[in-house]
Amino acid sequence: MSQNENFTTTQSARNHRSNTCCFCWCCCCSCSWKDEDDRRRKISHDVKLETIPNCEPSATPTAEEVRSWAQSFDKLMKTPSGRNVFREFLRTEYSEENMLFWLACEDLKNEANKSAIEEKARMIYEDFISILSPKEVSLDSRVRDVINKKMAEPSTQTFDDAQLQIYTLMHRDSYPRFLNSSIYKSLFQRSSSTSSES
Predict the structure, then answer these.
(1) Are 99 and 83 contacting, i.e. CB atoms less than 8 angstroms apart?
(2) Cβ count within 10 A of residue 13
(3) What is the number of alpha carbons within 13 Å of residue 103 lying toward its C-beta?
(4) pLDDT for 140-198, tens place per residue?
(5) Where are the alpha helices (DSSP H) in the chain?
(6) How far apart are CA 169 and CA 99, in angstroms?
(7) pTM for the structure as a whole
């Protein structure tokens, strides 16, 4: 190897190393997430989630409604205002995709047109089930396998198992924290003081 070739190889290695993370010097660095495309995708995802308005139109909840949300998760999820407040809380925990997925499944269940069902199912799959999605929900492998099989002929029930699993996850994991959150407590206080003034 000539001295010129040796210098070029060394220079190339130095340049490559400067692009790796501070813990890694080799070319097999796991810092591929820093690629420009991935950065753009993450920025795009963050902007989309931040600019989504409330999922559903809803009136300001009554004091009675707000109190009922502490009684059961089902009562919270049955009202549009409850879902919107809970979604606001989930956003603070970076798990808003769980509510978005659940709502998309509810929307799919109300669809009657076969081609619309197929299109909505495909969009739900791409947005929430695909491992490439930035909004991927956490599902076990059994449920994923069931969905993959059902996607051959999508129906309004394609995501039923997954929807139940996410509902259960929100109920057991996020709901207790929601009840202790400043979002719920301040809403409870505001609605209580408004009802006592009436």
Answers:
(1) yes
(2) 13
(3) 16
(4) 999 999 999 999 999 999 999 999 999 999 999 999 999 999 999 999 999 888 766 65
(5) 3-17, 36-51, 63-69, 73-78, 80-92, 96-109, 114-124, 141-150, 160-169, 175-179, 182-197
(6) 11
(7) 0.70
